[in-house]
């Protein structure tokens, strides 16, 4: 019996909940979040800063959400109201949890995962996600004003440009280097001197190495092995989980993934719906990684006859193959374009 571990945003839902929170509650929040997300990419993938992991964007934005009066209640209500799932995601989750041990491993905040679990009847005990409590601290009036001002300053900064072969800060364009240094001052000198520094010190987003730890924790619950694990993700936060499962002989699939996911996963899938995950699960259950490898060599992806009709109706609308360095840039372009078409230009462009 295989075990399925899935990221949430991308493979199951269309949202980027953190981006949408910033866009809604912080003036110019879309530009604000996009820049911090790019800074996150730099710290995690280029500088590889010790103690920092992909997805820590979700703690970097909390001081500013707090300064704009976002509460736990607002996060819960907003997540329920705005939740958007991929076609057939609910059917897939209900099928998967009855068929295989299935876990969601997400960097997203708990209120967002609770909203998904509520409409899909998926058990929250099978979810790993980022815990957050907006009421844990109070901001002084002057701190609130300062953070609101800084948020607007961040939103006006030029976007950080990261060359594909960048290995350090000096490899970035001069203007991008200045932006990174400005953000360094904001996040590691100014904010720690405020009560909002609590979020940077105490909140631990489930991304990067924490997703790999979550995979191990899920296996301790089921008693299964990495070789029996199918992991489906789509972004930089999934890289370490991909690497762990791949090294253990399991299946790793970049689903409508970006460059980071394609670089780390052994297989890729392009599909406009989540029913495709059920097809992958059936194939993996029959023969593990080798069965995926065999399917990846086929010219056409064939529907799975053993699936419920509601899932199989969608499962032939997909592309599935093995990632490789040959024609990699062409694959990245195709996958990222597909990603943006499915999730929208702004969310699809995020790391």
UniProtKB/TrEMBL annotation:
InterPro entries referenced in this protein's UniProt entry, alphabetically: HAD-like_sf, HAD_sf
Protein's recorded name: Haloacid dehalogenase
């Amino acid at each position: 019996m295989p075990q399925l571990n899935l990221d949430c945003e991308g493979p199951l839902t269309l949202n980027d909940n953190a981006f949408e929170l910033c866009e809604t509650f912080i003036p110019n929040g879309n530009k604000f979040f996009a820049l911090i997300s790019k800074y996150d990419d730099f710290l995690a993938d280029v500088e590889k800063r010790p103690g920092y992991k992909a997805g820590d964007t979700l703690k970097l934005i909390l001081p500013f959400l707090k300064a704009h009066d976002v509460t736990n209640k607002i996060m819960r209500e907003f997540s329920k109201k705005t939740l958007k799932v991929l076609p057939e995601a609910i059917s897939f989750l209900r099928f998967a949890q009855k068929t295989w041990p299935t876990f969601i491993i997400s960097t997203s905040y708990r209120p967002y995962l609770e909203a998904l679990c509520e409409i899909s009847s998926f058990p929250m005990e099978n979810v790993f996600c980022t815990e957050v409590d907006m009421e844990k601290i109070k901001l002084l009036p002057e701190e609130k004003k300062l953070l609101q001002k800084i948020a607007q300053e961040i939103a006006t900064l030029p976007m950080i440009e990261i060359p594909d072969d960048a290995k350090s800060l000096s490899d970035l364009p001069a203007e991008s280097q200045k932006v990174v240094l400005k953000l360094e001052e904001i996040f590691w000198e100014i904010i720690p001197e405020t009560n909002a520094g609590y979020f940077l010190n105490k909140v631990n987003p489930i991304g990067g190495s924490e997703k790999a730890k979550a995979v191990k924790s899920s296996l301790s619950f089921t008693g299964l092995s990495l070789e029996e694990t199918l992991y489906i993700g789509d972004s930089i936060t999934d890289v370490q989980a991909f690497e762990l499962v791949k090294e253990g002989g399991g299946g790793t699939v970049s689903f409508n993934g970006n460059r980071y996911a394609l670089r780390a996963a052994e297989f890729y899938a392009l599909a406009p719906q989540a029913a495709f995950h059920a097809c992958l699960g059936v194939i993996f259950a029959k023969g593990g990684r080798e069965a995926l490898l065999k399917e990846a060599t086929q010219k056409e992806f064939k529907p799975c006859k053993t699936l419920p009709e509601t899932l199989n109706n969608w499962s032939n609308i997909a592309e599935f193959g093995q990632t490789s360095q040959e024609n990699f840039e062409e694959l990245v372009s195709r996958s990222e374009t597909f990603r943006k078409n499915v999730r929208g230009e702004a969310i699809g462009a995020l790391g």
